[in-house]
Design goal:
The protein is of the alpha/beta class. It is built from 16 helices and six strands. The protein has one domain. Helix content is about 55%, strand content about 10%. Strands 4-3-5-2-1-6 form a six-stranded mixed sheet, sandwiched between helices. A hairpin with a 2-residue loop joins strand 1 and strand 2. Helix 2 packs across helix 14. The protein is globular. The N terminus is likely disordered.
Length: about 325
């Protein structure tokens, strides 16, 4: 879905260059002057709207906070180089998902297909109007997913599949790691312990809690034209690498009202719900995990999707509220 593709980071990202084909016009270059002014105002009001790497210090302890991107882009290399020493010297690395979590997820996909697939009752072609299903089928096929497979997917799961534009898919399929993956590889190679910030099922639980109708509303948000989705993805990459994380997030909020096929008020309501559930609530839930890690260690690295850095309920502001001194490094 659009919001997940833009944000995380809750909104899933060498030589392969998984994002190398996602080039061209940025959505940021297409917005009106009024929208740009609105975007400037919203971003200016956000605490910690800029920056990807921060040092948090308190009583001699250090947390290196890294805002990651879950896909690979060659521009990640200099950012990665800035934190290599921090990771290899850390007592512990905190991640949204560790390699053990990834293996557990693969097992879950195999052992509990009803979590991700419609195994009983009407499938998506029965639940959607003919025009919407035709659009979904085409979007799925653009990603190498035949219609008969898409038809059996839970709406929330299909929206995740459609969140990534076709331009980014070929090398993603090879498993090339984004910044969080590079960090976990580095930690593993240097025997640095890793720990998860949350259970692996956290996101799935959030996506599944809505009714089928609510999930279908979210699925409709995935129905962007390939051209528009690529423009949004280019904007995401450009904003991330310029450190403008807050601006990127507010752009995603702004564009919801422009999405075809969904009422603007409904779109904003869905955005606000996801912002609270996918971002702010998780941030608050992570704080005791970080606190426990600092009770046990003096130096840690905490790496997670960059959208979690920003805002009054962002991790950086929550750390400041807890007495940590923050210094932007990059």
């Amino acid at each position: 879905m659009l919001l997940r593709a833009l944000a995380t980071a809750a909104l899933m990202l060498t030589a392969g260059h998984a994002a190398a084909q996602c080039v061209g016009t940025s959505y940021m270059d297409l917005i009106s002057d009024d929208q740009r002014a609105e975007l400037d105002q919203a971003t200016a009001a956000l605490p910690y709207a800029e920056g990807l790497i921060w040092d948090a210090t308190r009583d001699g302890q250090v947390i290196t906070v890294v805002g990651t991107m879950h896909i690979f882009d060659p521009r990640l290399v200099p950012i990665y180089d800035l934190i290599v020493r921090d990771v290899t010297a850390a007592d512990l690395v905190l991640l949204e998902a560790t390699p053990d979590d990834q293996r557990a997820l693969e097992a879950m996909l195999a052992e509990q297909p009803d979590m991700f697939l419609i195994t009983d009752g009407p499938t998506l072609p029965d639940l959607l109007d003919e025009e919407t299903w035709a659009l979904l089928s085409e979007a799925s096929l653009d990603r190498g997913l035949p219609g008969f497979m898409a038809a059996q997917m839970q709406p929330w799961y299909l929206s995740l599949m459609l969140a990534i534009p076709p331009c980014a898919l070929p090398d993603l399929a090879t498993g090339i790691a984004g910044l969080d993956g590079l960090i976990s590889q580095l930690a593993g190679d240097n025997d640095v312990p890793m720990r998860s910030l949350e259970p692996i099922t956290t996101l799935f639980d959030f996506f599944q809690r809505g009714s089928m109708e609510e999930q279908i509303d979210m699925l409709r948000l995935s129905l962007l034209s390939p051209e528009l989705q690529q423009q949004m993805f280019v904007a995401m990459l450009d904003s991330y690498f310029s450190g403008q994380v807050g601006r990127l997030w507010e752009m995603s909020r702004l564009t919801v009202s422009d999405l075809p096929g969904i009422d603007p008020e409904t779109g904003i309501a869905l955005f606000n719900e996801m912002e609270q559930g996918l971002l702010y609530q998780r941030n608050r839930d992570w704080m005791p995990v970080i606190a426990k890690a600092m009770d046990e260690h003096d130096t840690i690295v905490a790496a997670f999707g960059a959208a979690h850095l920003i805002g009054k309920d962002g991790v950086l502001q929550l750390l400041e509220n807890d007495g940590w001194e923050l210094q932007k490094r990059y």
